[in-house]
Design brief:
single chain, 311 residues, alpha/beta, UDP-N-acetylmuramoyl-L-alanine:D-glutamate ligase
Length: 311
C-alpha cells in the first residue's frame, strides 16, 4: 500500500517563533556576524546586484563582498559603500567571462555564504564556468538564483554532488526548464515540483509564486501565503535572494534561512501595503522594512548558531 505524503505546512509567525534565527551576542564583531559573497549583476542590470547586496546587510550579515562585471562595478561601489566591490572580467556579450573563475575561487574560500545569479546575463560559456565553480565550492550555503540556475541544467549532477549547501530560488518558468516540462505543468502542482527539485539536487528549494513553497530533501514542505501582488515587480526576487544569503551568512541553516527569508520578504510587502496600498512601491523599499520585522520576533531569540569553520 502506498504511503500518503503529508501536505505542506503553513509558514506562520507561530512557526517562526518555534524556529528562531540565531542571534549574535553583544561581543560579536562584523566577521562574527558572517561574511557574504554576492556574485551578481551586469552592465545592463547593475541594480540587481545592488538590491541583492543591500538585502544581505538588511538581513544582518556583518561583511559584504560583491563580485560583478567590470561595467557594473563602479556603480555598485558608489551605491553600496558598505561593500568591497570586485570587478570581474566580462565577455564581449557583457556576460561574465570564464577568466573570472580563479578570482571567484579565491573569494568563495573566505565566505560564510554566497548568492550567485541576480542580474547576470545568460551565456553558455559563463554557465559552464559557473557549473564548475559551484561544484567545487567549500561547504557553505550557496543561494543560486536567476541566470545561475542555468548551470544546474548543464551539470546538475556534479553540482549536487559537491560540498556546498544549495538553496535554489526558481520561479515556475525556471523550475520548468530544470525539470524539462512546460511552465503550466509546474504551476498546476508547484508543491510537488518543488519537492522534486529538492530531491534531485539535494537542495533547499524556494519555489516562488503567489503561494511560495519551500522544500528540502527531508521534512515537510512549507507553504507561504503572506505577501501580496505588489511583490510581482522587477527586483523583487533579487531582494529575496539577498535576504536569504544574509541570514545564511549570520548562521541560519539553509532551510531556516529560506523560510525566514521568504516570510520577511512577504511581510515587508504587507507592511508597505498597510501604509500606502498594494501597487507602486519599489523593490528597494522592501529592504528598509526587514530590520523592524526581525526585531518584532526578538522575544524568540536563540543563541544557538551553526558552527563556523573559521574564527
Amino acid at each position: 500500500m502506498r504511503t500518503r505524503r503529508a501536505g505542506p505546512v503553513a509558514l506562520t509567525p507561530a512557526w517562526l517563533r518555534r524556529h528562531p534565527l540565531p542571534q549574535p551576542d553583544d561581543t560579536a564583531d562584523k566577521r562574527g556576524r558572517g561574511q557574504v559573497l554576492v556574485v551578481a549583476g551586469a552592465g545592463e542590470m547593475p541594480g540587481a546586484a545592488l538590491l541583492c547586496a543591500v538585502g544581505t546587510l538588511r538581513a544582518g550579515a556583518g561583511r559584504l563582498q560583491v563580485a560583478t562585471t567590470a561595467a557594473a562595478a563602479p556603480l555598485v561601489a558608489a551605491t553600496v559603500p558598505e561593500a568591497r566591490v570586485i570587478a570581474l572580467p566580462e565577455a564581449k556579450s557583457g556576460a561574465l567571462s570564464t577568466r573570472a573563475r580563479a578570482r571567484l575561487d579565491a573569494l568563495a574560500a573566505d565566505a560564510d555564504a554566497l548568492v550567485v545569479g541576480p542580474g547576470m546575463l545568460e551565456a553558455d560559456a559563463a554557465s559552464r564556468m559557473l557549473a564548475g565553480w559551484l561544484a567545487g565550492l567549500p561547504a557553505i550555503p550557496a543561494v543560486v538564483d536567476a541566470a545561475a540556475l542555468c548551470a544546474l541544467g548543464l551539470d546538475g549532477e556534479r553540482i549536487a554532488a559537491g560540498r556546498a549547501e544549495l538553496i535554489l530560488t526558481p520561479h515556475a518558468g525556471e523550475a520548468a526548464r530544470l525539470l524539462a516540462v512546460e511552465r503550466e505543468v509546474v504551476e498546476a502542482d508547484a508543491c510537488a515540483h518543488c519537492r522534486e527539485l529538492a530531491s534531485r539536487y539535494g537542495a533547499v528549494v524556494v519555489m516562488k509564486g503567489a503561494t511560495t513553497y519551500i522544500a528540502a530533501g527531508t521534512g515537510p514542505v512549507l507553504r507561504n501565503r503572506h505577501g501580496n501582488v505588489g511583490l510581482a515587480m522587477s527586483g523583487s526576487g533579487d531582494t529575496l535572494a539577498g535576504i536569504i544569503g544574509g541570514l545564511s551568512a549570520r548562521g541560519a541553516g539553509p532551510s531556516l534561512a529560506a523560510a525566514w527569508g521568504v516570510f520577511l520578504h512577504a511581510a515587508a510587502a504587507d507592511a508597505i501595503r498597510a501604509r500606502q496600498g498594494t501597487l507602486g512601491f519599489l523593490a528597494r523599499e522592501l529592504l528598509d522594512e526587514i530590520p523592524s520585522i526581525m526585531n518584532a520576533f526578538a522575544s524568540g531569540r536563540s543563541q544557538q548558531q551553526r558552527p563556523r569553520p573559521r574564527a
